[in-house]
Amino acid sequence: VQLVESGGGLVQPGGSLRLSCAASGFTFSSYVMRWYRQAPGKEREWVATISSGGGSKNYADSVKGRFTISRDNAKNTLYLQMNSLKPEDTAVYYCYANPAWGQGTQVTVSS
């Protein structure tokens, strides 16, 4: 199982980023997928979940209305569209397919 995140970077408050997670080594379309994040000095926290078919999505209250999780099962790829970014969104973002984690991608929101 391999999960590789990309798309992180430095963005100003109010800006947008789209994270991707390329999956391989398992039947991606059969798995519930999740995004988590870990800010400096804090525990890893759940951000969003998407069902295997993409029809059901759930979000942490802190990102609801600003972030959108999606997936392309034909491309074995998970996405996280992040809009209206805030400094408190600064963290390493990880994709998760039980029990595997990606290596993470850094998102920094700062002026």
How is this structure best described in words?
By secondary structure, the chain is an all-beta fold. Helix content is 0%, strand content 51%. The chain has no helices and eleven strands. β7 (67-72) and β8 form a beta hairpin. The chain is globular, with a radius of gyration of 13 Å. The mean pLDDT is 97.
Quick structural overview:
The protein is an all-beta fold and 111 residues long. The protein contains no helices and 11 strands. The mean pLDDT is 97.
Indicate the mean pLDDT: 97
In percent terms, what proportion of residues is strand?
A: over 45%
Overall 3D shape: globular
What sequence of helices (H) and strands (E) makes up the elements? EEEEEEEEEEE
The amount of helix comes to: under 10%
The separation of the N and C termini measures 37 Å
The low-pLDDT segments are none
Topology overview:
Elements: E1 2-6, E2 9-11, E3 17-24, E4 33-38, E5 45-50, E6 57-59, E7 67-72, E8 77-82, E9 91-97, E10 100-101, E11 105-109
Features:
single chain; globular; 7-stranded mixed beta sheet; 4-stranded antiparallel beta sheet
